[in-house]
Structures are given as structure tokens and as C-alpha cells.
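Researcher: Let's try something more involved. This one mixes different molecule types, so please make sure each is placed in the same coordinate frame as the others.
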Amino acid sequence: MTAGPSETVAAEAAVAEAADPLAELAGQVAAAVGGRAEYAHGTAKIRVDASAWKEALTAARDRFGLVFLSWLSAIDWSNETAVGDPPDPPVEERYEMLCAVSDLDEGRLVLFSADIGRGDPSIDSLCGVYPGANWHEREAAEMFGIDFAGHPDLTKLYLPDGFEGYPLRKSYPLLSREVKPWPGKVDVEDMPEAGPDAGNGTRPSTENPGA
Amino acid sequence: MLAHHLSEAAVSVELETEGMTLNIGPQHPSTHGVLRLVATIDGERATDVRPVIGYMHRGYEKLAEVRTYPQITTIVNRIDWVSGFANEVPFIVAAERLMGVEAPPRAQWIRLVLTEMARISSHLVFMASYPLELGAATPLFFALRERERVLDLLESVTGGRFHPNFNRIGGVKPVYAAGPVTKKAGMDIPAAFLAETRDAMDKVESTCEEIENLVAGNEVFLARTKGVGVIPVEKAASYGVSGPNLRASGCGFDLRKTSDYLPYDGFDFDIPTGENGDCWDRWWVRLEEIRQSARIIRQAIDGIPSGPLQAKVPRIIKVPAGETYVRAENPKGEMGYHLVSLGGLGPYRLKIRSASFSNLSILPWILQGALVPDFIAIMGSIDFVLGDVDR
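Model: All components are placed in one shared frame. Result:
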């Protein structure tokens, strides 16, 4: 049976309603900066080449009114982890730079993402576009060992001078756990009412998922 | 004789002066914790200010990678401890969003009421400390008295004044008004809570009146805040300055109006904004926000839906693979969590976007050229918490 005209109109209206304005904006921005837009769980993400990082964010600020720098950080995609569970299935090993920018009218936030290689990770600094990127980049530099080309002062932000290693890399162990293993359920008393019929006295979430 | 003086004056102007380094903190009452400023000053004016942070860095982003989702709420409410409850909400909503779970309406409204109470208590701390830093001690007693009242109410529901750890994925913690711990139906917020909160809001509003009468006409306070530490709105945006600091600069942006992390859309409330973006506006915006929060809480009490406090969730929480960023309008500004899950018991990566970090990052810009005595007025007006800066 073919759809009648009224049903078609209803279907179109449903599509128009489902098309989120944020997803729409992400599509426009991605087309303008030569990136690829993704939209899931209420979060719009635009993947761009690392070489186009600064130009993409400049265009976002100047042409789409995304003037508010929310945050900038990175993810270490690694299959060998000193903390937490290793990814299953395995992931492509890389650093993913993330920068969240937003407008100040409707609060539409777009996440920019660029993959950078694990060898000698480096990307352009955004300090010239959003001055607030200064501290975020210093944090990412000391935590992930990423170099930001053109940053005016890439010194340590949180960590003391002379600190060695990059704590947020997956290969970096959580030292407190190495020294003293997580006690898990050893020091957890059963709930007072937990009898034999209350789930065999087992409690979820006292096991440590990693380390 | 006059000519002689003039030539001397010309010489003294051309004299090279050497900048002096002034260390403020890390243990100074005006730094709200452990912030250190290394300022280069020329006479009474700063030529360069370098904040040194990290004394309270606890590595929460790393710790979150070895914890289960329910355990992480205990970490996140320690980020900005002045409004611990408000920190939990965006994290929980992020996890819920990836799981496709939504808290029942009553639970969401309770979250909303307690978030606004956290805002009131946070702003009341500011109302107490800021005039104190500028030399007026009396408002502190008014503000902290009301804050105790609000914290007592928060405690009556959550069991904690600072670290409620009250949100659960899919709802809020079952609350026991009295008696033994049972899993029977009918558990709810304490019976007297709603009535007492309404009463407390009346008192909070009359205290706002008192504080305004005490402070707003005070000549010393006006002289030290009007036109001091001006942040233009474009500057604020490019540094990621958010919350009352941004609104004081004249931008009416508020995530409660644009975002859906809590059911604010049916509520009638105003977004106070400043005109000049100076210290005075930042003080005034926060005072108004207390009144607006009281207004929101009244409406929430009147319209709170009945029903369960917890949606059905698995006994062992696993969050499906995916990523999302959820941000909320916290008392200090935008607080958000970028949650990356690979389907396990804990996150693969949790980026914590805290308001005070970005709000403080504008300090070198704003303090450049400022008078040294204005440092205290400017820093205090930004209302940061070092735990929220360092995470």
C-alpha cells in the first residue's frame, strides 16, 4: 500500500522535528572547514585533519559565532593500558585532540576532533584564536606529552618543574595503586539487612575494574 | 627656579625603574585556598602577573579511569566543594544519556531543587567572603547564618552538607525519613522538607535584602568595586569565562535556559546581567541569582510531581560504548563532563571541565596594569574555588 499524501506530510514533519538544530549546525560547519560531522547522544563532533586544526577553529569562531572556548583536552587511544581495562575490540593507537567551542546565544556546542600520531605528537596552538587555550594546552602538554606549536609559554601548569612522565597517558601507572592495592570488598561490611535472600550478600561495584 | 624644577622632573621621568617581584600566596586569605601569584610590579601597578596553580591537583581524571561509575560521584562532588551537589548532576546525566536511561520526574525535580540550593549556598559564601575581603565583616554573619539553614536542609535529604553523593544513575538515593533501612515502597524525601524549604526561602530572601542594605550603599565598597576589574564580554568568551562572571559582563547566557540536563523549561525566572563587567556587577549578579534561585525553588516545591525516585537500571552498571559531553550551569559557571565509555564498568576517559579553571585563566589579562590593592577586589569578585581550578 502506498502512503497517502497526508501520511507523507506527517512523515516529513517527523523528520523535520527529528533533525536537531545542533546536528544541522555541525553539518554546516563540517562542510565549511572540510571535516566530517558526527552526532550522537546530544553531542556534535567534527573530525578535521590535524593540519587544518587552527584554520578550522578560526572559521568556527569567525563564521559560525562559536566564540566561547569551553575546553580543550586529549584522549590517549592505546591498546596497552597500565590503568583500567584495555580497549576491546582494539583501537587505532593515536592521540585525539578535542576542543569544545560554543556560541553564546542558543548554547550550541560543537566538539572539534583531530587525530595526531603517537610518535612525536604535535599540533598547532590555538592561543592566537582563543587566548583561553593557553592553560588548557599547558595541561594537555604536561599530561599527554603533546607539543603545541606556537604556544607562548608551554611550561608545566599543575605538575612541579622537573616532573617526569605524562600522567594521563594510558601507559602511565597510577602509583598509589602500585604501592597499595585497591582493597576492594575486603573492607566493606555487608549491609545490615543483607540476609541470604538479599542477593547472596554480594554487592556490585566494590571490585576495582582495573589496576 | 621653576625651570630648574621642570628639568629635574623630566630627568626623573626618564629614569629607568626596575620591576619588583611580589609573591602573593600560596597561603594568603584572599587566595581562597592555595593559589600563588607571582606579580611583577612597577610602583603600585602590576606589569605582569603569573598565577601558579596545582597545589591541590588530585588527578581526578586519572582516578576516574580506575573507578566504577557509581564510585565516581564521590570524586566529582569534591571538585567544587562549595556546591558539591551541583557537580554530581552533569556527570550522572552524561552516564544516563549513554545508557539511554532517564530519571523519573520526581527525581529530576529533587535534583533541580537541591542544585538551586547548592547555588544559593555557594553564592552566600561569596556574599560573606567578598565584603569581608574589602573590609566589611558584618555581611558574613548574615550570609553564613542563611547558608547554615540551607546546608541543614541539604543534609536532611542527602545526609551530607558538602559531599552529598546523592545522585544515582537513573535517579536519586532512596531517602529514609526515619526508622530502619528497608527497601519498601514509599520512601521519599523527609516529610517536612518541602515546607521547611519554603520557609527557608523566605528567610534567604529577607537576608538578601539585609545584605543589599548593608553593602550596596556602602561608599567604601562602591569605590573599591565600581569600574574595577572590567572584563569585556568578548574577552570573557575567548577565555571561557562563564556563569555569573560572564553575565556580569552583559551576556545573558545561561545553560539553564538553553540546555535540558534538568527540567528548567517550565520555570519562570530571570537571568540577571550586569552592564559594565566590573567587580560591582559580579557582586550584584550573584545577589540577584540568589533571589532567582529562591524563586525557582518555590515553583519547584509547588509543582513537584509524585512518583518513584529511581528508574530501573541493571544491578551492575555498565555504560554502553559511546561518548557525550554534558554541561550544566553550576554556581561558578559551566561545569561539564566529557565521558568516553567503551562499554565497561568505568569510563575510558573522563574530561572534567570546571568553571573556576577557565574563570581564573583570565587573571593574568585582567590584573595587568591593575593597582596592587585592587588585586584582592578583582580576585575575590571572580569567586573561584581552588579545588575547582585544580581538580
